[in-house]
Write a structure and sequence with these properties.
By secondary structure, the protein is an all-alpha fold. Helix content is about 55%, strand content about 0%. The chain has a two-stranded antiparallel ribbon with strand order 1-2.
């Protein structure tokens, strides 16, 4: 999910009952020790906690990216969409719609989200899993952002959610790799969204948003459905579904680009 979504998504975080106790800033080892106690209280095993934080240090590159990424949508919709809704992407998306037609039909029946919009999101976020899903260790990334005092409470909760992904057996720690705000997988879920909206749609007992296309697409649809998606209704700007898409990305420009991509897939 897009980098600027972290603040909005955490408002609906499953584990947001109380603020985490770790004090931001100061000694990093003391900070991770306090978060470790919070994680243990949330049911994460000592073995997972110890392995996750072993040798973890602050990542200055993550902080630098976080401070410069706020102007992403200074471009107009026309400027932004021109670089995202391009023939190569549309052609690949059409081919994948045919390959996964049965899966997409099943998801649409269950969750009410059209295949064209799911394909738009999947393509825009990671080029359908073939593009950049991030190469950073999620624990280090989120621990860095949690230690920073600007949004510490938010990212402390994301850090515990990341540990719970490992605790549940959805991803091993070595595979907990993501982008500059800790987004994971082919449609870039923050850890809290992974926990809250993830769906085991291939039936293997794990929610794998890095490798399993059924899990990726069903979880993406589930996020929209849980937040009020109206099946069969339009989702252009000004509609109720367009507002539901704020749970995916608050930017009007980005949501209009999602809708445009879906429209192009529909032949409009």
């Amino acid at each position: 999910m897009f980098r600027q979504q972290a603040v909005a998504l955490v408002l609906s975080f499953l584990f947001a009952a109380s603020a985490c106790a770790a004090q931001c800033g100061g000694d990093f080892r003391a900070f991770t020790g306090a978060v470790s106690r919070e994680a243990a209280a949330a049911g994460v095993s000592p073995a997972i906690i110890n392995n996750a934080f072993a040798g973890v240090t602050l990542d200055p590159a993550v902080l630098a990216f976080d401070r410069r990424q706020r102007g992403t949508f200074r471009k107009s919709f026309e400027e932004y969409a021109a670089t995202r809704v391009v023939p190569a992407r549309l052609n690949r998306a059409r081919q994948l719609m045919q390959r996964h037609a049965a899966l997409l039909s099943r998801i649409e029946r269950q969750f009410g989200v059209p295949a064209t919009l799911l394909m738009a999101i999947w393509t825009l976020e990671s080029d359908n899993g073939t593009g950049d899903m991030g190469k950073l260790p999620v624990i280090r990334t989120i621990a860095t952002l949690a230690h920073d005092c600007r949004r510490s409470e938010l990212f402390q909760r994301e850090l515990i959610a990341a540990l719970q992904i490992v605790q549940r057996g959805d991803l091993p720690l070595r595979d907990l790799i993501g982008a500059y705000a800790g987004e994971i997988g082919q449609t870039q879920f923050l850890p809290s969204s992974y926990i809250k909206y993830g769906v085991d749609y291939d039936g293997n007992g794990h929610i794998d948003l890095r490798h399993s296309v059924p899990d990726v697409l069903a979880s993406t649809a589930n996020l929209l459905k849980v937040n009020g998606w109206q099946a069969g209704a339009p989702f252009d700007e000004g509609t109720a579904n367009f507002e539901v898409m704020r749970e995916w990305n608050r930017s009007v420009v980005y949501r209009k680009t999602m809708a445009l991509f879906a429209a192009r897939l529909s032949g409009r």
